[in-house]
């Protein structure tokens, strides 16, 4: 879908998310939209929804929730630097992502790895413990 002027360009939400490199394929973008992981102006929507500049998208990607504002439309997937020009992320979203990353990092640091691998006897004890406790 190519238009002669940017005003005539009409882009579906799943295609825009793919072009902006939030999802690797359009089908993954479609599944995320249908699964409620993408909200358009704080409302659930369908993959065929037409995107408009200035729209607010809330995306749940793994551990992160990103809030982006659509700046430009594109129906073609290009390089990452060009794709980043299609949107800008809100300040609250960036701060929230940094806080979440810090929390995950500190949680991971609190979990110490075992000093050595479990011996055969240790593995049997672990197995017995799991069976007794229904784990």
Provide the CATH superfamily: RNA-binding S4 domain
Please indicate the percent range of residues in DSSP E strands (runs of 2 or more).
Answer: 15-25%
Please compute the radius of gyration using only Cα atoms: 22 Å
> In which order are the strands of the major sheet placed?
2-1-3-4-5
CATH architecture: Roll
Largest sheet: 5 strands, antiparallel
Instruction: State the domain count.
Output: 1
Keywords: DNA-binding, RNA-binding, Stress response
Family: Belongs to the HSP15 family.
Pfam family, one: S4
Organism: Marinobacter mobilis
Key features of this structure:
135 residues, Structural Genomics Hypothetical 15.5 Kd Protein In mrcA-pckA Intergenic Region, Chain A, 5-stranded antiparallel sheet, 5 strands, 40% helix, DNA-binding
């Amino acid at each position: 879908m190519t238009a002669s002027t940017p005003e005539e360009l009409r882009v579906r939400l799943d295609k825009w998310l793919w072009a902006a490199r939030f999802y690797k394929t359009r089908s993954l973008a479609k599944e995320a939209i249908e699964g409620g992981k993408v909200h358009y102006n704080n409302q659930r929507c369908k993959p065929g929804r037409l995107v408009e500049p200035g729209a607010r998208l809330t995306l749940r990607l793994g551990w992160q929730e990103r809030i982006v504002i659509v700046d430009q439309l594109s129906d073609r997937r290009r390089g990452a630097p060009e794709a980043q020009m299609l949107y800008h992320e809100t300040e609250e979203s960036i701060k929230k992502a940094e806080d979440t990353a810090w929390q995950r990092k500190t949680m991971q640091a609190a979990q110490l790895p075992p000093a050595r691998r479990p011996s055969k006897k240790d593995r049997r004890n672990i197995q017995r413990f799991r069976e007794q406790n229904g784990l």
